[in-house]
Here is the input.
Amino acid sequence: MLVVLLVAGMAAAACSSSSADPVAAAKATCGGSSPKLTVQGTGLATGTPNILTVEVGIDVTDATAQAALADDNTRAAAVTAVLSQGGVATKDIQTTDVSINADDNDKGVITGYEVSNTLTAILRNFATAGSLIDSLAGAGGNATRLQSLSFSVEDTRWLEDEARDDAVHQAVSHARSMALSAGERLGPVCSLSDQTQIDDYPQTFGAAAGAPSALNQASAALPLDAGSQQETAQVTMVYSLVSPPAVSHRR
Here is the structure.
């Protein structure tokens, strides 16, 4: 009886040691000669934008560069004051472009100077954003030009992670379905790679360069709809395949 128990214990220990190292087993089945299945998964995640980025241009022309610059600075300061009074934080207001150009006639004689100034502001309160944007026209006058509006999610990392999670689940589902159809079983995952290319495509609206400003013609708060923002992800998974054990038929 002691011999039987000892032999049984040795057999159990041998089985335990052979399966105790899943990494080694995975390497063995992921070898170059082992059959594999490669699948791809595409994921999608949708979020609601929480910031609105506004670009406002101020274009002034005067007889001298000094006069044009002073006029533009005065109007830009007035626009900045409206933004600040509307609750926009100082850190969310930035001068993103300033240019001074001479205007001349067909004889090459300078007739004046044009100063262009672009202010970019991030609005976080959508309830007052339309009225605030409309108020900018009064601050900058006819020199004010609304260049663009773009809604976006400020921190997209959680959206990207959700999209990747969705992509992995789709890849696993594809792998299970394909293996079942082929009469095989899925072994360990040999590799999992991320082919996601994150592109930012904000929703943008606004007048083209040189077109009349919508702000100058607005008589009521500008209607704004944030819509949604989507992130996509793509992953590739490689599984090893394990053939099911052959069924023996005994007579």
About this structure: Helices lie at 2-19, 22-29, 65-85, 126-140, 157-181, 214-217. The chain is about 35% helix and 35% strand. Residues 29-48+155-201+228-246 form a domain with the Translation Initiation Factor IF3 fold (CATH 3.30.110.170). Residues 144 and 231 are 34 Å apart (CA to CA).
